[in-house]
Amino acid sequence: MLTRRGVAYAGAAGLAALALGRLFRPHTVNAAPHPYEVTHTDAEWRKLLTPEQYEILRREGTERPFTSPLLDEHRAGTFACAGCDLPLFSSKTKFESGTGWPSFWAPLPGAVDEAEDRSFGMVRTAVSCHRCGGHLGHVFPDGPKPTGLRYCMNGVALKFEPLPQGAS
Prior knowledge:
Elements: H1 4-23, H2 42-48, H3 51-57, E1 77-81, E2 87-90, E3 94-95, E4 103-104, E5 112-117, E6 124-129, E7 135-140, E8 150-153, E9 158-162
Antiparallel strand pairs: 1-2, 1-9, 3-4, 4-8, 5-6, 6-7, 7-8
């Protein structure tokens, strides 16, 4: 049954969510839409990717936190797009955010695109692969120095390529 008190509580919760959304507004988006170098039909993507990769990369899903083996990846190397192999992040920028997803303070130059995401009643910045447009995760303005950014990525959207032994 709908009561005045229930409506008042719902309104107050909505206003609080709006205020928090404005307080934690993401940084400025830096990329315009463009044609992708790697394109496939939906059927081709389904054949190329695992069902979980397809859900994340092509349908903008999110993996469950603390499930990615890449959380514990600490070797020197590069994190690349699982959809097209484009190098995205250096292991030198990876840090432990405690959020349950692999986090980085900066992508490699020209590797990612960013776009405003207004899903789930909040404003965030979505991050996608510059080469294939695959959804990777989101970036937030609460990361460490030197950028102050936290690129919170779905591990299933990435693959790790270690540096050869002896390389630095």
